[in-house]
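Predict the 3D structure for this chain.
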Amino acid sequence: MVHQHFMLVEQLTVAENVVLGREPKKNGLFDFEEAVRITGQVAQHYNFKLDPRVKVEDCSVGVKQKIEILKALLRGAKILILDEPTAVLTPQEVIELFEELKKLRDMGHTIVFISHKLNEVMAFCDSFTILRKGRVAQEGKIADYSEQELSNFMIGRVLSKTKKRQNKGERGEEILRVRDVSYTNRQGKKLLESISFSLCKGEIIGVAGVEGNGQNELSELITGLARFSQGDITVDGVSIKGKSVRQIRDMGISNISEDRMVFGCSATLSVIDNMIADRYYKQPYSNYQCLNTKVIKREVKELVGRYEISCPDEASAISMLSGGNIQKVIVAREFTGGAHVVVANQPTRGIDVGAASFIHDQLIQMTADNDAAVLLISADLSEILSMSDAIIVMVGGEISAYIEDASKVSELELGEYMLGVKKMDSSEIIKALHSAKTNGFKVVSE
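Done. Predicted structure below.
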């Protein structure tokens, strides 16, 4: 089994991770050189290009995926179960991974490929089984069906194709400004360096980058989960510096977190409790320190219907719901709290195409009347390209490219920017910002 979230010890080397649990010994002690030899030998056998001596924390996401597969192969696995293996990979890394997996298939290994990305299923798999609500909804040979048919089987109805968001000519007033923001973590490692951009009402800016290049830290700084060491972040001209998470939310910022089970909800509480977590202390939800249960139940029931949340009842523990429905509960809360800026960090990761399509529609609706803006952080490049007006690309905690018009860049080109193969110099970024200014963007910093 290769899990969606890597099960690696970041501080250890590739070799130490690969042999973990099967460590070679010499005179009763761990033999590192033998571990390097074993790892190199197995990697060469399966045509995996890996440096056994490099620490995992210094490896790219694509390399980490290969380390996980190599761990399983070293233990003699003939059947590999891969759970969302391409969720955080660039198009180039996906192509490389598929080439490696096809070699494994040709060597006699069986691969169970769990994914919501139908284009990848169509390109890589021989047969399919579709699960819906815990039951087999359809199975067959890939060659006998179209991608649209598989999509319909997954959600149980005909799903219209996602319409590409039209890039507008004019944006509203500036609402969020990030200026020269840097961030250093508790270990003294600088994770963000002089980040500057602005977000205007009515627009969606996509933030693309290989996981671990500062996108999550940027999200946490804007929403108050982390503190920046330099620069400033303002909402409607008011700085968020020194303010609590609740104060920042009251300023009009909502947060769809990357980790829905840690920061998005409380797994042991009910749908009702999670839905009102950001407003239970306000009127009309509470009076004189007592909850107004009648108002709360009525509103939550209405939101469950409006956001098409499938649950036994509103009093059920949220952990009993599917991933897509948990995400819909979070989205319903974050979109109805009066926010003017939505920080959507991986909003559709690990959910079915029906739920993803619904969330996309809601994000677009948020900006339709120019009252709100969305900062969309996603590892899904098709999502970034179809939803965004403009795109920021982050590499190594810095903005490496600013693409004014998302419709004028391809997935492969965006992947090159993300990998650092292609990069705009500072003058190009400034030029792009100045060009964007004439279309309604405001230049924050040169």
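The chain has a mean pLDDT of 86.
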